[in-house]
Amino acid sequence: MEVKDIQPNQGNIDVVLVVTDKGDTRTFEKFGNTGSVCNAQVKDDSGEIKMTLWNEDIDKVKVGDKIHLKNGWCSEYQGERQLSSGKFGTIEVLENQAETPKTDEPVEVMTNEPSMLAPGGTEDTEPVQEEESVE
Prior knowledge:
The protein is mainly beta and about 140 residues long. It has a domain at about 5-95: CATH 2.40.50.140. The chain is about 5% helix and about 45% strand. It has 2 helices and 7 strands. It has helices spanning about 55-60, 115; strands spanning about 10-20, 25-30, 35-45, 45-55, 65-75, 80-85, 90-95. It has a 5-stranded mixed beta barrel with strand order 1-3-4-6-5.
């Protein structure tokens, strides 16, 4: 399924998304229980949609993560579609933004650290004299 095909009051939504933004977490109390809620913006190649994250899903999902919403629900609030895992859905993080892809290619490192510039450490470099300040 793609974002463009999601309709309000639709259930059993199965979609892969990328988290583009994540708002502040708010706490609430309902029926004597407390919980947390957070709005996020998610997208796929077909479009963007708002997603509501509840409780433990808030900390699980980060901006830049690729997620899989299984058995999700779409509601409508003030004319805007909103995805949620609902009562029976789950959110799985497929690719964590913090993970960097593995590659066999060498990595270029840019530095001004003298100990990294000379093969034998700093003994091959001349000491740098600091200029006196004129007051």
